[in-house]
Amino acid sequence: MRKATGLAPGRINLIGEHTDYNDGLVMPIALRLAVTVETRSRNDRTAHLSTDAPISPDEGSYELGAERKDGTWMDRARGVTSILARDGIRLGGFDAEIASDLPLGAGLGSSAAFAIALLRSLSELFDLALDDKECVLIAHAAETDFAGARAGLLDQLASVYGRRNEALLIDMRDQGMRTIPLPPTTELAVIDSGTRHEHATGGYNRRREECEDASRHLGIVSLREIDDRPLDTILERLPSPLDRRVRHVVTENARVRDAVAALSAGDDATLGQVLSASHHSLRDDYEVSTTELDRLVELATAAGALGARLVGGGFGGSIIALGQRGGAKELAGRVLERYGGGGHLVAVVP
What we know:
Layout: E1 3-13, E2 25-26, E3 28-41, E4 46-51, E5 59-63, H1 75-86, E6 94-100, H2 110-125, H3 132-146, H4 154-161, E7 166-171, E8 176-181, E9 186-192, H5 204-218, H6 231-235, H7 242-265, H8 268-284, H9 291-302, E10 307-311, E11 318-324, H10 328-339, E12 344-349
Parallel strand pairs: 4-6
Antiparallel strand pairs: 1-3, 2-7, 3-6, 4-5, 7-8, 9-11, 9-12, 10-11
Helix pairs in contact: 1-3, 2-3, 2-4, 3-4, 5-7, 7-8, 9-10
């Protein structure tokens, strides 16, 4: 019996939300929180999975080559093995034990981290020699083609290439990357609202469809093409709510550039303002926030955060709040004291 282990981290996205599937700009940071998958070979064609995560079911099995969605977390594993088979890569049966300290559904990339960790473990177990790029593409196909969540590549790229103490600026148009040092004067509190999302069945797919509709209206391939055009003139050509969706995407790309400039200049105040402006746009123009997320952002601002915003796809999950170095944990405590049940501090970054 052979054994193998794979690990992949979750992520926060400092700025650049819902831009990845529009060929835009993103700035993820890898978390210390991660998913670990230990696999053992079997002598049959069964994949058996079990997890210590607080999720139901905590274990289950399926036959390789007969993957069918059932709406549970195991669809990501079924997606991985299905896409491997589609690509001509044959697996034997395996047992997989999944351990995670990364909250599920909190907008921190847990699904991508699970898929990447599983791929890394299976690659070692069956001598597949999958490289990082292949893992990104297979994990993304498992999420989109099999599970049905039409997300961009942000989470998979961040889980594979992200760093814990630096932001990774990614241009999704060509997937060019460069690291951006984080300031020594600030840190981020990641605060979970306690409310959950499900991209494949929620409003996430609808937002992507709206961006595609807007692109067709404008006669362009992606919304990235209009970054340098007069925005007001473009918005006049679009019906509601497509005009608001486009305004968010274009201005969010601009905010990523503003964040890079603020980080380079050591301008913490401006960085905080950019984060808050991103939340307002996600709330008002993209309409992916919730009452709970809005309240956390308001409480963080009142508690002294330089800026705060929802992180991830929205419709639940977490916020990030920018505080002074050494003070983010205390800031989060003040927020949660007023927020009430359900929320908790997930991490302080870096």
